[in-house]
Amino acid sequence: MILVGCGALALAACGDATAETSGATANDAAEAPARAADEGAEAQEDAAQADASGDEKAPAVANVACASDEQELFSCAAGTKRIAVCGVTNEQGQKTAQYRFGGSGKPEIVLDGGRFASVPYSGGGEAQIEFANGGVRYIVYSRTVRTNFEADEPNNPEFTDGVLVVRDGKPIAERNCTGKVEAVDVMAGDSYGGVANELFYYD
To answer: Do the strands 195-196 and 115-121 form a parallel or antiparallel pair, or are they unpaired?
Structure first.
């Protein structure tokens, strides 16, 4: 009887494992198109940024992350990439905000000369740092939007950060932050040319 019971349990376990495997295979198959779409969109965004960055020679920078002697003005993880804006001193000895984008190694894009802007919203606001490169603009942003307007209820703010690439007034790529966000340090803007009270681009 015990042997029969063990055999029954073994068959049941085998059946469960087969079901789980089949379920996992089905889930993988269902998720594959979405995963491929995400990877395709990420590749398109990278290509758009890289294509737009080719107008000027980039300063030599070893890493995307700000160094210990640089001021971190913005940073975040964006999928497999990182975005950072660092306060640096350029070759002319001037303080400048520097945009960096890339993976774990050397940055793929580096641009100097960031300009700051900030506007308030009802229950939120938005801060931006714009970098111009020929006819292309890279706009790093941190946005807080109130999502609940019921009386005596919490605002339920929604936070969005990332970089928008604009050419001839039209967005050509956008990369949203996915983790480890240090929002735009708009309070530091006065040290980098001041802070405008009109955004560079309204989404």
So the answer is: parallel
